[in-house]
Design goal:
This protein has 391 residues and is an alpha+beta fold. The chain folds into three domains: 190 residues, Elongation Factor Tu (Ef-tu), domain 3, CATH 2.40.30; 65 residues, OB fold (Dihydrolipoamide Acetyltransferase, E2P) (Beta Barrel), CATH 2.40.50.100; 76 residues, Helix Hairpins (Orthogonal Bundle), CATH 1.10.287. The chain is built from five helices and 23 strands. Helix 2 packs antiparallel against helix 3. It holds the Pfam family Beta-barrel_RND.
């Protein structure tokens, strides 16, 4: 049954209905003005052992360099090797005219034979005079003179043997061989050239290229800073046998074969106040050539309780100061300035500003501001996204 309002109550009902309608409109407007909290993904920081790496500049050097020189004077008859080829120790490189050295060798051999004949004669005379002096047939002075002549003849034989050996060496030096194994460069002389006249003439250069060295320099300030941190217990020293080196090529890519740190020099360059560090790298394909400018990333220490964050979590202000967004237990975002160390892969080492257990925003940075409330997505979703980004 339809029941109508009394005429005196109708204005009041209309007013109440209008009030409810306006209230509902205000609630809808407030809901539209307050957007939902943005969704972010975070990473909970954990302490872990981190290698302290330093990227230094330097040049490639051959570990062994030998200048092939003419050790005897003469005319070059022939170049035996092929320029730019690999040679082994003892390989014949050049042939110098051996005729004069062969003649000297034959003369020294004849002189030795003459000295040996003289020694034989004086030895027999010495033996006879010994018998005669015992029989008192000759004086002691004559026996002593015979003994002295024999000793002089024996010394002459030794001298003749040394001269023959010297002649043999000179004859051998006429055949120039490789002093070390390696790659030989261009010839510095041609056939017909007179070499070794007054001084040793360079003929070619051999360089050992596998393995090869990379010499880099580091300032004493950086090195002393590392040592102070080690003494304070913040860092641990990496053993010489464990210190790894990574070579950065001119295109920015890492050399595929790892190297190792050999040693640090014990003296400082007075002009640059820097110290030299030498590392060694395999070079089977001879991609690394002496004189090339390179950068080397060295592991010089280990931080036992280090903190690192993904590179995508780092923001920078107009001055270039790095910072991160940290989410507290109330899901509120705050801005935090940090001090970064070295980059390791896709992560930055954090020296100051963060500690283990804090949550750092790694996804959704463009939607959050300091002081805002956020909604944290599940860790599984963050891990899946991180794996997808790594692929």
């Amino acid at each position: 049954m339809y029941t109508s309002f009394p005429s005196r109550l109708r204005p009041m009902a209309l007013l109440a209905l209008l009030t409810l309608t306006l209230s509902a409109c205000d609630d809808g407007a407030d809901q539209e003005q307050q957007p939902p909290a943005p969704h972010v993904r975070v990473e909970t920081l954990q302490e872990q052992s981190l290698a302290i790496t330093t990227e230094l500049s330097g040049r490639i050097l051959a570990p062994r360099v030998a200048e092939v020189r003419a050790r005897v004077p003469g005319v070059v008859l022939k170049r035996v090797y092929r320029e730019g080829s690999d040679v082994k120790q003892g390989d014949v490189l050049f042939l110098i005219d051996p005729a004069p050295f062969k003649a000297d060798h034959d003369s020294a051999r004849a002189a030795l034979a003459r000295a040996e004949a003289t020694r034989y004669q004086t030895r027999l005379q010495d033996q006879r005079y010994r018998q005669l002096v015992d029989d008192k047939a000759i004086s002691r002075q004559e026996a002593d003179n015979a003994r002295a002549a024999y000793l002089q003849a024996d010394a002459a034989v030794a001298e003749a043997k040394a001269a023959l050996e010297r002649a043999r060496l000179n004859l051998g030096y006429a055949t120039v061989t490789a002093p070390i194994s390696g790659r030989i460069g261009r010839a510095l002389v041609t056939e017909g050239a007179l070499v070794g006249q007054g001084e040793t003439t360079p003929l070619a250069t051999i360089q050992q290229l596998d393995p090869i060295h990379a010499d880099v320099t580091q300032s004493t300030r950086e090195l002393n800073s590392l040592r102070r941190a080690m003494r304070a217990g913040k860092l641990q020293q990496v053993g010489d046998e464990q210190a790894q080196a990574t070579l950065i090529q001119d295109d920015g890519s890492a050399y595929p074969l790892p190297g190792k740190l050999l040693f640090s020099d014990i003296s400082v360059d007075a002009s640059t106040n820097q110290i030299t560090l030498r590392s060694e790298f395999p070079n089977p394909d001879l991609d690394l050539l002496p004189g090339s400018y390179v950068r080397v990333r060295l592991e010089q220490a280990v931080q036992p309780k280090g903190i690192s964050v993904p590179q995508r979590a780092i923001l920078r202000d107009s001055a270039g100061v790095p910072k991160v967004m940290v989410v507290d237990t109330q899901a509120q975002v705050s801005e935090r300035k940090v001090t970064l160390g070295t980059a390791q892969g896709d992560r930055w080492q954090v020296l100051e500003g963060l500690k283990a257990g804090e949550q750092v925003v790694v996804e959704g940075l463009q939607h959050v501001k300091p002081g805002e409330q956020v909604q944290i997505d599940s860790a599984e979703g963050a891990d899946a996204l991180a794996q997808k980004s790594a692929q």
